[in-house]
Design brief:
Structural class: alpha+beta
Number of strands: 15
Radius of gyration: 20 Å
Distance between the termini: 28 Å
Number of helices: 9
Helix content: 25-40%
């Protein structure tokens, strides 16, 4: 391919200060947008309005940075998706789709991502509408949410150089067992790279692996300067999923090559390449939805685009999700987003009673830093980006 971001040069890692700053900046923006979206998730709010709000905020905030470099791409690394109750992921409706409104007591999963120069930070969060520490959610919904939260917290503490993906998979299984829940079968987390939120890599973490995955997903160790998008889905159901009765609206460009025949397809695909690079996007981003759909079909048929179908729990049970992006560094790791859930908003009859896991959770999630007193208060990555670019 002839994209500006394709190069035969060795890819820079977070060992490079500029790359590290871009990841951190994307992380700060993604968390800021997530917090703003949570305030919009109220009874009566429409899902499409929430998704549109999130996408606009990501676009607006990233546009403020790195203005001097006109060739630097930035913006949405994953379009805002709002999936309710048994709907697992990728629900990001179009204006032409049936209206879906949020209701009191709904379990709502929000997923999104931002990138600076292809260095992406993806994040997901779960809330129960109306739940507070004074009136917490309960029952199987709370079980799934607390299990997913603690699974993500344990994963954070395990994704360090020298540890293995199997440690993460096995520990997550133990936590979900404690809450009488199940990780969704076969859900993968990936090492991510520039312009790749789902990198073509053997570095994967699988939850509740299928028999095929037990053979195909390789055991591996985390290494310094790698970046991971850790994604946890938990349900009180069987862990099986099926396709949900909703239109697919999220797609990602692949690296396949094909000479498109239709003029509409060529125009649509050119727009995708120029605006979204290899990042996932939603059809909602196109002003003329009908034209976009016309161009889409041929691109999907010839595998130029990969679809993200909307999934649901096979038994209709609620599904909780937490996702964060983590940088593996020499003295531990750095979580650049997520970490905003308050466990007091959920109340469960179950708890973790495994001493090893309890000790792991008791560890600080912050990497150790030397000579803190000698260091001046650091600017945020976003501030740094504003002042130096």
């Amino acid at each position: 391919m002839s994209d500006a971001y394709d190069s035969e040069e060795e890819e820079l890692t977070i060992e490079n200060d500029a790359v590290l700053t871009k990841y951190k900046t994307a992380g700060e923006i993604s968390n800021m947008v997530m917090k703003a979206i949570i305030q919009e998730v109220i009874p009566g709010a429409s899902v499409i309005d929430i998704c549109s709000f999130g996408d606009k905020l990501i676009t607006d905030e990233t546009a403020k940075l790195y203005k001097k470099d006109k060739n630097l791409k930035k913006g949405i690394a994953f379009p805002t998706c709002v999936s309710i109750n048994e709907v697992v992921c990728h629900f990001s409706p179009l204006r032409s789709d049936p209206v879906v409104n949020v209701k009191e007591g709904d379990l709502v999963k929000i997923e999104l991502g931002a990138h600076i120069d292809g260095y992406a930070a993806v994040v997901a969060h779960t809330i129960v509408v109306g739940a507070t520490p004074d009136a917490p959610a309960s029952g199987v919904m709370a079980d799934a949410i607390l299990a997913a939260h603690y699974c993500s917290e344990v994963a954070l503490r395990l994704i360090k150089a020298g540890n293995s993906n199997k440690q993460v998979t096995d520990t997550i299984q133990k936590i979900t067992d404690s809450y009488k829940c199940t990780p969704l079968e076969g859900m993968l987390s990936y090492q991510i790279k520039r312009y790749q939120t789902e990198a073509d890599t053997d570095k994967q973490i699988v939850l509740n692996p299928s028999e095929i995955q037990k053979k195909e997903v390789k055991d591996m160790e985390f290494a310094v300067h790698e970046v991971y998008a850790m994604d946890v889905f938990v349900t009180p159901g069987t862990g099986k999923t099926k396709e949900y009765n909703a239109n697919t609206t999220v797609y990602r460009r692949t690296e396949e090559i094909y000479q498109l025949k239709m003029k509409a397809s060529r125009a649509f695909y050119s727009d995708v390449c120029n605006r979204f690079t290899l990042m996932p996007f939603t059809l909602r981003a196109f002003e003329e939805e009908t034209k976009a759909k016309m161009g889409l079909k041929e691109c999907v048929t010839h595998e130029l685009l990969q679809a993200y179908p909307v999934q649901q729990d096979a038994t209709g049970q609620p599904v909780a999700q937490f996702k964060f992006t983590v940088l593996v560094v020499p003295n531990g790791n750095i979580r650049i987003n997520g970490g905003i859930f308050d466990p007091a908003t959920c109340k469960s009859e179950h708890k973790i009673e495994n001493k090893e896991i309890e000790d792991l959770l008791a560890q600080s999630a912050n990497r150790k830093t030397a000579n803190k007193k000698k260091k001046k208060k650091a600017k945020s990555a976003a501030e740094e980006a504003k002042t130096t670019n």
